[in-house]
Design brief:
163 residues; mainly alpha
């Protein structure tokens, strides 16, 4: 029978995954996953969007009817391929979060690229009432900063000093 020697146990060189990273990844999975599904399904229902505005008007929401009607009419006129591209941006964010959960630096890069593409897609490709508001931009920047702080030991490789 072999004797147990704790010094022979291989030590893991990879950094430990923090609980806050798991929370951020779960929030990203939920938000980006829901957004990807929404944008993928938008071409299927976009012809019905103007009729939805009438439903809001009949529900006693006359104050918001004009704004809702304008937004839904605009959304119905957006070409389907633009919704598909936005869905791909959100899928890229989900892939990035999954890679970050595995402590891969490429996950952070995927996530940042997805955020930039989403910003560009919503503001320049589609625009109008679907443009990102200031609070959306602040949330995106906050998540990028939190991810960077939690993954900095993976993203910034420490220099090994020669002995």
């Amino acid at each position: 029978m072999e004797e147990f020697d704790p010094e022979t146990i291989p030590q893991e060189d990879s950094p430990r995954r923090r609980p806050m990273l798991v929370v951020l990844c779960i929030l990203t999975f939920v938000n980006s996953g829901f957004s990807a599904l929404s944008y993928l399904g938008m071409p299927l229902v976009k012809n019905e969007l103007p009729a939805m505005a009438d439903v809001y008007g009949r529900m006693g929401m006359e104050d918001a009817y004009e704004q809702i009607s304008t937004t839904l009419d605009f959304m119905a006129e957006v070409p389907s391929w633009k919704y598909f591209l936005l869905a791909l941006c959100y899928v890229l964010a989900v892939v990035g979060a999954a890679l970050m959960l595995k402590m891969k630096p490429s996950g952070f890069h995927c996530y940042v690229i997805a955020q930039i593409l989403t910003f560009a897609g919503l503001n320049f490709l589609i625009g109008g009432p679907l443009s990102m508001q200031l609070m959306d931009v602040i949330w995106s920047i906050t998540f990028v900063v939190f991810y960077f702080v939690l993954l900095r030991e993976v993203l910034i490789t420490p220099r090994k000093e020669s002995e």
